[in-house]
Each structure stands twice: as C-alpha cells, then as structure tokens.
Amino acid sequence: MILHGYWRSGAAYRTRIALALKGLAYEQLGIDLRTGAQRSAAFVALNPQGMVPALEVDGAVLTQSPAILEWLEETHPAPALLPAGPVDRAHVRAMAALIGCDIHPLNNLRVGKTLRETFGADQAAVDAWAARWIVPGFEALEALVGRHGAGWCFGDTPTLADCYLIPQIYSARRFNVPVDAFPRLLAIDGAAALHPAFIAAHPDNQPDAD
C-alpha cells in the first residue's frame, strides 16, 4: 500500500492511526499542501479532487478518509475498530462524523487560506474561527465519552472515533484553542500519547515533517 498524504493533515493523520492500529505496512509519499503539490497534474490524475489522503492498494486508488477507514475495517477486521453490536457501531460512527463532518472541514488548511486571502483574517481571527467550531463539538464529544467511554471514546479499546479525535485535539492546539475544559478527551489524548500506534502516526514522526 502507498499512502499519499501530508504530515499535518488531520485526514491523513487519522488514516495513519487506523493503519498503525491494524498493524499494516505501507509506503508514504508526501504531498505538501502548502506548495500546492495536491494540484499537480500527477496527483490530480491519481485523485481528481486533489486532496489527501489517497491510498493506492491492489491497483485501486481509495480517497476520502472515511471511506478508507471503512475499507480497512472491512478488509482487515482484526483488531476491530468498530464494536460488535449495530447500535454501538452507530454510536462510534456518529462520534467520528461529529468530528469529520462538523468540525474538521471548517478548520483545515484551505479554509484557513481562504479566510486570510479573501477576508483578510489575521492569525487571531483564524484561531477564533477554528474555536467557534471546535469548542461546541468537543462539548458534545465530552458528554458522549461520558456515556460510552471506558478509557477511550467508546469502551476500553481504540475505535474509529479515537482515530478522528486525536488529530482534532492536535489541530485544536495548533489553533490555540483551550482544551482544559474537556478532561475526558484529554485523558484519551494522554492514553494515545503512550500507545505505539498513535505515536507512530503522530505528525512529528512522519518522513515529510518539517
């Protein structure tokens, strides 16, 4: 497998976590979003949307991290990143979607660039914009972890929800968003900091990191 990604991309980060949790070997090819490498003819030929991650596997190119993570779960079911029961699986998917649909798309690199270039936002304004979406999302997640978590977002082992949460906490810190009000989320972040799969997937440990 070949993973095309960017070391600081939240979507690529969550994909690396899932790959590491599954114990799967893969090659990485860095796509520097800051330089516009995602718009190169070679990469657009691979992924017409020009976004990361893209995963080459068995002659196919998989795009969009939710689809990639679901594919990983279907094709490499152990260790499971979704619980056994359909209601529990829906809870985990909902927690992942809360981040993947309602928080992350509003504070990624291209949104920040648009805020700066089109609306003249400075870094403080960009940080405030990110907090506007991260804080209420984390408030909801804190409550959901209180209902379902037992060391991780759901239960006592990592799930897809944790693959989404850890990169979003990393992003929150980059945008100077205070996270002290979310002790359950911070406890999960602390557990991830000691977990080999999460350590391997961390942005600072990627071959294309600054």
In short:
This protein has helices spanning 10-21, 41-46, 65-75, 86-102, 109-119, 123-148, 160-174, 183-193, 196-201, and strands spanning 2-5, 27-30, 54-57, 60-63. The protein has 210 residues and is an alpha+beta fold.
What does this structure look like?
The chain is α+β, with helices and mostly antiparallel strands. It folds into 2 domains: 2-79, Glutaredoxin (3-Layer(aba) Sandwich), CATH 3.40.30; 86-197, Up-down Bundle (Glutathione S-transferase Yfyf (Class Pi), Chain A, domain 2). Helix content is 55%, strand content 8%. It contains 9 helices and 4 strands. It has a 4-stranded mixed beta sheet, covered by helices on one side. Helix 1 (10-21) links the parallel strand 1 and strand 2. Helix 4 runs antiparallel to helix 6. It is globular and about 45 Å long.
Shape: globular
**What value does the Rg take, in angstroms?**
17 Å
Strand content: 5-15%
Poorly predicted residue ranges: none
Mean pLDDT: 97
The SSE order reads EHEHEEHHHHHHH
Q: Return the CATH architecture of the largest domain.
A: Up-down Bundle
Helix count from the secondary structure assignment? 9
Largest sheet: 4 strands, mixed
Largest sheet: spatial strand order: 2-1-3-4
Number of domains: 2
